[in-house]
Amino acid sequence: MIGYVKIEKCSRSRSWYETMVGKWYPVYKDEGIEWETFEPAGYKNYILKEDVSYVVDGKITKKQ
After folding, report:
1. 11, 17, 35, 55 from 61: Cα distances, Å
2. d(CA 44, CA 35)
């Protein structure tokens, strides 16, 4: 795990994380425009960076 993201919104309708807005979630790999993670069912999946705030070195950051 490389850090946590706070899901702020869900840009893609019916995405696996649309019910998780407002929650913090662990991420495992930077994949360019997305973070690689594992959804609650255990499947590998992705969260768009534009949909989250994230923690870097203990500071909350927002990708612009």
Report:
1. 19, 20, 14, 6
2. 11
Beta bridge mates, 26:
4
Q: Which of 2, 1, 13, 9 is nearest to 49 (CA)?
A: 9
How many folded domains does the chain comprise?
Answer: 1
User: What are the tokens at 47?
Assistant: 């969260």
- CATH number of the structural domain spanning residue 53: 2.30.30
pLDDT surpassing 70 at residue 62:
no
pLDDT digits over 8-42, tens only? 999 998 999 999 999 999 999 999 999 999 999 99
